[in-house]
Amino acid sequence: MTLVDSPPAEAATQGTRVARRAFLVRELGIGLALVLLIAVTYAVNPRFLSAQNIKDLLLGSTILAILAVGQAVVVITRNVDLSAGSVLGLSAFATGAVFVAAPGLPIPLMLVIGTALGAVLGAVNGGLIAAAKVPALVVTLGTLYMFRGLDYTWATSRQINAADMPPAFLRMGTETVLGVPVLALFAVAVLVAVGYYLRHYRGGRELYAIGSDPAAARLSGIPGGRRVFAAFVASGALAGLAGVLHAARFGTIDANAGLGIELNVVAAVVVGGVAIFGGSGSVYGAALGAVLLTTIRAALPVLGVNPFWQDAAVGALILASIGLDRALSARVGRSLREGKAHG
Amino acid sequence: MAERIAPVRRVLGSWDVIVLLAVVAVATVGAFTIEGVASPRFWRFVALEALPIALIALPMTLVVITGEIDLSVASVLGLTCTVMGQLWVSGVTSLPLLIALCLLLGAVLGAVNGLFVTGFGLPSLAVTIGTLALYRGLAYVVLGDRAVANYPREWTSSAIAPIPGTTIPWMILVLAALAVVFAVVLHATPVGRALYAMGNNAEAARFAGVNVRLTKFWLFVATGTMSALAGVFWTLRFASARADNGSGLELAVVAAVLLGGVSIFGGRGALLGVLAAVALLGVLRNALQLAYVPANTLTVITGALLIASVVGPNVAGMLRERLRRRRSTAPTATPTT
C-alpha cells in the first residue's frame, strides 16, 4: 500500500495512515474476539485454561496456522492455493515412508526434506499459473486431485504407525518448552519470518502491489510472474513443513492426512482479514484466524453448546468477518478519497 | 489476460465438441476393451452417479459465466437431505409436500447466498465458503450423526425407476427437460446474453441496462433450488438422509463446469460442454472401475484433465499469437500485449 514515499502524497499519507489503522483495528478485532471467547469460556469452566488444554489448543492451531500463513501469501497476490491439504498429505506420508526406509535420519534433515517436497509441488502450481497464465483456482483444484491421487497410489491403503517412526521425532510432537509446545514454536518462527519479509522487503511489498492491481504492478516493472511463482513455492513449502509436523503430532499416517482442510485454511485466512481479492491483510491476521477457528471448535463443547453446532458457528464467523471487512474497507476508501480531494 | 482471449476463443469455439467426442471415444474404446461397458447396466450406473452432479452443474454454469461461484452447493444438498429426513420422521408423509418444502428450503438457502453477494457486495468465493461451513453445520444440527433410512419402498424405487423398456433412470428425462430450459435461457434469450455480458464486464453490463445484482441474486436462488432437488434425489436414491451426504461434491461440480470449457473469470462457456464434461467424468470413472483401475488413479486423471483443459487452450493460444506476430511484418493494428 505504501510502495511510494514520494512527496506529492502528503494528503494521501494521511489517508494511508487511516488505512493502516483500519487494518490494525481489523487484527486487533480478531485478537479481541479471541480474548473474549477465551474469557467467557474460562468463566464457564476454568479448566479451559489448564496447562494441558492450552497446550492442546496451541497444538491444534499449529498446523492450520502454518497453512494459513502460506495461503495468505498466495491470497495477497489475488490467487488461491486449494492444493495445500493434498501437499500436506503427501508430505506427511513421505515423512513416514522416509523414516521407515531410514530410521536413523536426523530430524532437521527430515524437516528440510518435507519442506523441499512441498516447495517442488508448489513450484508445479506456480509454474503452471505463471508460465501458462491459467487461473490459480483451476490449477490448484486440479493439483488438489492429482497430489491426493498420488498420495493414495503411493500409500495403497497402507498405514504408517507410530512404531515405525523414531521416538525422538514423536517426542517433538508432544514436547513443550516452558509450557509452549515445540510445534507451536515452529509456527511462530514461520509467522515472524514471513510477516517480516512481507512488511519490510521489496519482494514482499510487491506481492501486495500485484494483488491490489495486477496491471498497474506490471506497468511499474514488477516481475509479476516470478513473484506469483515464488508465492506458490512458499505456500507449497509451508504445506510441506506442516505435513512433517502433522506426522510428528499424530504419529499415525495414512493417505487421508489433511483431507478437505483446504477450505478451512481459506476460511482462516478470510476470518483473519486477508481480502480474498488480494492486496491487503497480513499473515499475522491469518494466523490469528487459524487460532480463533481452532479455539471456537474447542470452546463450544465447554460452553455447553451441542458440538454439532461447530461448523455452523465457523460458517457464521466467516460471513461476519467478510461483512466486517467490507464495512471497514468502505470506510478506508472514503477517507482515502477525501485525502485525495484535499490534496 | 484480455488480449489473449481472442485467439483462444477460436480454439475454444469447438471445445464443447472436443469434450463430446472424448465421451464417445472413451465409451467406444471402453466398450471394446473393458468387459461390461457395453452392457445397459453400466449406463444405468453412469446415469445415476452423474445425475446429482449434472443437476447442480446446470445453474452453476450460469453462475460461473457471470463471474461468480457457489461453493455451498454440496452443503445445500446435505442440509436438504437432513431436513427431508427430519420432516419424514416427524410425520410429513406426503412426498409432493416433502419435495416442495425441500425445494423451498433450497431456494431460501440460495437467496441467503445471493443476498450476501449482491446485497452486501461481498465476493461470492468467500461468502459461499462461509455458507459451505454454515449449511453443512446446520445439517449436523438437524440430524447429528443419525441417519433416517426408513422411507417407503415405493418412493425409493420410483426415484431410480428406469424408463420403461430401458435401463436408463427416468430422472434423466427430468434432467434433460431442465437442461433444455437452462440452455434456452443461456443461449437464446436476452437474459442469457446479459449473463455473458456481466461476466465479461459487469460495469459495462450495468451501463447497458442490465440489472446485474438482481440477475445474480436469482441465479443463486436457482442454484440453491437445483442443489435441493439433487438432495431429494440423493436421499431417495441411497434411501438415507445423513448430514454428510454429498460432502465434497462442490469440487466435483466445479471441476465438471471448468472442464466443460467455462472460464473461471466468467463471460465464456456453454452448457453443452459442461454436460459433456459431466458425462466424460462419469463414464471414465465407471469404466476404469470396471477395468479394476484403482480409484486413486482416477483422482489423478480428473486433476490432470482439469489442468489440461485450461493449460492446453492457453498454450495453443500463446503459440498461435507468437506465430502470428512473427509472420506479421507491419506493426500496424496488432493489439499490443
TrEMBL record, chain A:
Keywords: Cell inner membrane, Cell membrane, Membrane, Transmembrane, Transmembrane helix, Transport. GO terms for cellular component: plasma membrane. It is found in: Cell membrane. The keyword Cell membrane applies. The chain crosses the membrane at residues 28-45, 57-76, 82-102, 109-132, 177-198, 228-247, 259-277. GO terms for molecular function: transmembrane transporter activity. It comes from the Bacteria. It holds the Pfam family BPD_transp_2. It is a multi-pass membrane protein. The complex is composed of two ATP-binding proteins (LsrA), two transmembrane proteins (LsrC and LsrD) and a solute-binding protein (LsrB). Part of the ABC transporter complex LsrABCD involved in autoinducer 2 (AI-2) import. Probably responsible for the translocation of the substrate across the membrane. This is Autoinducer 2 import system permease protein LsrC. It comes from Catellatospora bangladeshensis.
Automatic annotation (TrEMBL), chain B:
The chain crosses the membrane at residues 12-34, 46-64, 71-89, 95-117, 124-143, 170-196, 217-236, 248-265, 272-292, 298-319. It is found in: Cell membrane. This is Autoinducer 2 import system permease protein LsrD. The keyword DNA-binding does not apply. The gene is rhaQ. It is a multi-pass membrane protein. It comes from the Bacteria. CDD domains: TM_PBP1_transp_AraH_like. The lineage of its organism: Bacteria, Bacillati, Actinomycetota, Actinomycetes, Micromonosporales. GO terms for cellular component: plasma membrane. It comes from Catellatospora bangladeshensis. Its main location: membrane. Keywords: Cell inner membrane, Cell membrane, Membrane, Transmembrane, Transmembrane helix, Transport. GO terms for molecular function: transmembrane transporter activity. Pfam families: BPD_transp_2 (PF02653). The keyword Membrane applies.
